[in-house]
Amino acid sequence: MQKTHGYAAHNNHSPLVPFSFERRDPGANDIQIEILFCGVCHSDVHQVRNEWGNSSYPMVPGHEIIGNVTALGSTVTGFNVGDRVGVGCLVDACRVCEDCADNLEQFCNAATFTYNAPDKISGGSTYGGYSAQVVVDQHFVLHVSDKLDPAAAAPLLCAGITTYSPLKHWKVGKGDKVGIVGLGGLGHMGVKFARAMGAEVVLFTQSAGKSADAIRLGAHEVVISSDSNAMQKHCGSFDFILNTVAAPHNLDSFTELLKRDGTLCLVGVPDTPHPSPAVGNLIFKRRQIAGSLIGGIKETQEMLDFCAEHSIVSDIEIIPIQQINQAYERMVNSDVKYRFVIDLATLNADDV
Ligand code: NAP
Ligand code: ZN
Ligand code: ZN
């Protein structure tokens, strides 16, 4: 084992503080990564505050990791020391079940998440990217093009794949009218991807002040979701709506905007359920409410390559790690433009 350091939550109500802990030495299949940047996902806030009821402490959050390879195990192929790499929400899976065989490791019952999960390899808990370095099995390490700004690429590892995957699964493309609900970390990536895939893109927001940004990011139109007249104009017209909102809300105002056979896909994970949807909205037009979870490793690599080809990265605010607690407050107030990214060069071993 080797000593390292980062920032951790010790319970569901205190600020994150400097923390010293151990990681395994790289095994034969492992890659050791010096972490340069780590994005701040709303899931980090949900888990630090135990809003999903599954938190264990101490918790080092962070699953939007970008770094450089510093060491390789003896059986690692396709990576070299110095390579720019990424790690997302997954660091292990069983590799033999039907989901793993289909390259959908995110659905594997034995998947190991990057933090706040039992670590089957070294025991204890997994610790995430708010830290100096990480050791990860080669199968779960992604290649990141040098063409992409490393800080702005970090959010692709979660916000990017979580929006890219459902847009691809529901075959969004030219001729489709697509809605994105919520302009936060996930939502702004959803706007960029849906636009790059050729769709007509409408952004739904509760924040009128984000309208100009939404257009700059690629939306063709912005609708303030509390304006029922503006919402009604779009009734029955959408092929697909991706809902990224992190809080419970009325879904009916979005299901009625779908065409026959249209899909409302939920990716936001509120701490309490949404009010029950009106069944009439669904059955009369065979509309569907669906969900989606990040994406598999193969698709995450495909997404990163798509981003390099189309020059897509996240719009970010870089913060020193000492500002992480203020960043959480701003994020829960929908005040992030549009992803916080921690610069790990600001991490100081002497603070622990
Ligand atoms: P975020 O940056 O905080 O963005 C969420 C956006 O939702 C806000 O910016 C806001 O946009 C809107 N919003 C927030 N509260 C709202 C409310 N009460 N009513 C209506 N709209 C509201 O969060 P994120 O990082 O994008 O994550 C969004 C959600 O996705 C979280 O629940 C997170 O845990 C979840 N998530 C799921 C997956 C998955 O695999 N399914 C992966 C990552 C994250 P406007 O100001 O534009 O309205
Ligand atoms: Zn995330
Ligand atoms: Zn599996």
Q: Would you write up a description of this structure?
A:
The chain is an alpha/beta fold and 352 residues long. The protein has 2 domains: 2-158 and 313-351, Alpha-Beta Complex (Quinone Oxidoreductase, Chain A, domain 1); 160-291, Rossmann fold (3-Layer(aba) Sandwich), CATH 3.40.50. It contains 11 helices and 17 strands. It has helices at 42-48, 98-101, 150-153, 159-169, 185-196, 211-217, 228-232, 252-255, 279-283, 297-310, 324-332, and strands at 2-8, 17-23, 30-40, 65-72, 84-87, 90-92, 112-113, 133-137, 142-143, 177-181, 200-205, 221-224, 238-243, 258-266, 288-291, 316-320, 339-343. The strands form 4 sheets. Strands 3, 4, 5, 8, 9, 16 and 17 form a 7-stranded mixed β-sheet that branches. Helix 4 crosses helix 10. The longest helix is centred in the C-terminal third of the chain and has 14 residues, at 297-310. The chain is globular and about 60 Å long. It binds NADP nicotinamide-adenine-dinucleotide phosphate and zinc ion (2 copies).
Q: What portion of the residues fall into strands of 2 or more residues?
A: 25-35%
Low-confidence stretches: none
Integer-rounded radius of gyration = 20 Å
Order of helices and strands: EEEHEEEHEEEHHEHEHEHEHEHEHEHE
What is the name of the CATH superfamily of the largest domain? Medium-chain alcohol dehydrogenases, catalytic domain
Query: Major β-sheet, in short?
Result: 7 strands, mixed
How many structural units, i.e. domains? Answer: 2
Tertiary shape: globular
Structural class: alpha/beta
Number of helices: 11
